[in-house]
Write the structure tokens for this entry.
Amino acid sequence: MGDQPKKKKEPVPVEKTADPIISQIGDFRRYQFWFCMLIFLSKFGTGWHTLAHIFLAAPTPLSCATANVTDACSDDCDEIEFDTSVFETTIVTEWNLTCKKSSLSSMSQSIVMAGIMFGSIVFGMIADRCGRRPAFLGCCFMQLGAGLIVCLSPYFWFYCLFRFLTAFATGGTMTTSFVLIMEIIGPKKRELVAILYQIPFNVGHASLAIFAYFIRTWRWFQFAVTIFSVVFVIYIFLVPESPRWLFTTGRVDDSIKILEKIAKRNNAPTETIRAEIEAGYKVLAAKTPTKKGNVIDLFRTPFLRTKTFCMLVIWLVICMVYYGTAQYISKLGGNIFLNNLIAAGLGIPGTLLCVVLTKYLGRKITMMLSNALSAIGLLALVFLTSFDMRIQVACATLGLFGASISFPNVYLWGGEIFPTVVRSNGLGLCSMIGRIGSLLAPLICELSQFKLWLTPLIFGLFAVSAVISSIFLPETRGTPLPETLEDGESFGRKAKE
């Protein structure tokens, strides 16, 4: 028998929806899967740079080398010695950030959190004005360049400046990568991908302990977590502009070209793409502009105002508790590598558990349970500071595990609570308040120097406030999203009553 020519694979029709982009490429097919895997690579770096401070400024015991002086922080101590048996160098040993200057170490991490906050805002604006691709590529390469310069820091202020710039780029990476993914995935898988998007961050956080175990000098440690960003060069060739952004900004031809390439890879029909996209744009252009909202609209009416305040509290708490507890664990005794590896590693099952809980229990119950878990672990720690170190680490880890469930849920719930006309404003405000929480977290950790129980008490009480705030918010699972400000005011009122 002669070789039969292979039959050309017939294109699989795409379900037509109200979304003109998804109607051409499918909800979540082969291209979207591999595109997500590619973009997820950038999230490893966000975990590394956001929480590298845990090991860059690792606790380093010190003693006084002056005869007959035991207090290394005494004015009589002329020479101090660091215990370099665990870490050869840290930023603490490099610039003597001890005693009266010890707060400078925590301040440097607050500067990082401020950089993430401003970076997410600025690069978000650039992405809306200039496109998702240039903003994404720009922050990826800025992260690489600034991160490598940190390794060469001759002075502490220089270190803080370039850690800020690295964090600025990291904040941009968080924002633009999430937008790129969300704009190319259909509604059926958008919820799942939005939660799983946190997994690479969790893996990055956990792997810091492995990097630090094998690299005990802070400059080479910083180099190791930065040099991975060289792989971002592939983004130049593999990450196209968002076809949705091109479509909505009037660059229809460019959008069609990208959609046709994606459709081919998804084995979807391409013949009708141009006609349908051009028709869709005419409909879009002919629409009467909807009244645009602003941040002030979030506070105009009583019920929407209540929901906004409650959501702001939850964002503040979750960012504060997650980042704060992660750093607090490093200040506890025991094996710093194992403590952080276990605590951070639990973020992975926490995120996966969030997928199941939000699907079957809903956003509200999940948020209350996860914050209650954080509160229980942290408030229990208040009374156990004199107990075995393993018990203390277990309680702190429980607090961090609860926060790891809350973190992806707050993005999902926040996006569903606010009406469409002010959704971006609402999430932007929440993100900013959340970053303030993460900015305050290192300073709260610093309070453990005065009383060990003070830090977990503050974090635990804030977690309780998040549980209480959740009570006043409506469940959004399976409900149509509010569109107008009127919808935003009435949405969830019946469920509340």
Remarks:
- The CA atoms of residues 151 and 220 lie 7 Å apart.
- The beta strands are 62-64, 80-82.
- The first strand starts at residue 62 and ends at 64.
- The two ends are 75 Å apart (CA to CA).
